[in-house]
């Protein structure tokens, strides 16, 4: 996120009202502040944050949510993605999950 003080987090499952739920990666600006596993990677720049996940199997299916934590009451922006994986014979797969235009 290009605006100072704005955090972006990704979580598994449905988002809660005020925070990320089951956070997998969290960052502010171009700095990652938390990563649950090496499987989650984020790159950023002035256009936003790009998050990737290394898919290991159908267990990675499910809901993921992104929360942009904008200062002020009820200013946060939340998006939800439903990831569906069909079993294949791949050993691993890089998946581009989401590109969020975070210019605020």
UniProtKB/TrEMBL annotation:
Organism: Dicentrarchus labrax (European seabass)
Lineage: Eukaryota, Metazoa, Chordata, Craniata, Vertebrata
GO molecular function: phosphatidylserine binding
The protein's name: Ig-like domain-containing protein
GO biological process terms on file: apoptotic cell clearance; cytoskeletal rearrangement involved in phagocytosis, engulfment
Superkingdom of origin organism: Eukaryota
């Amino acid at each position: 996120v290009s605006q100072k003080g704005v955090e972006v987090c990704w979580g598994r499952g449905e988002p809660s009202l005020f925070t990320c739920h089951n956070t997998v990666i969290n960052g502010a600006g171009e700095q990652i502040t938390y990563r649950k596993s090496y499987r989650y990677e984020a790159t950023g720049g002035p256009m936003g944050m790009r998050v990737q996940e290394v898919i290991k199997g159908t267990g990675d299916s499910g809901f993921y949510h992104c929360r942009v934590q904008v200062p002020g009451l009820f200013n946060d922006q939340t998006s939800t993605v439903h990831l569906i994986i069909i079993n294949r014979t791949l050993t691993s797969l890089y998946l581009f999950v989401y590109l969020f235009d975070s210019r605020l």
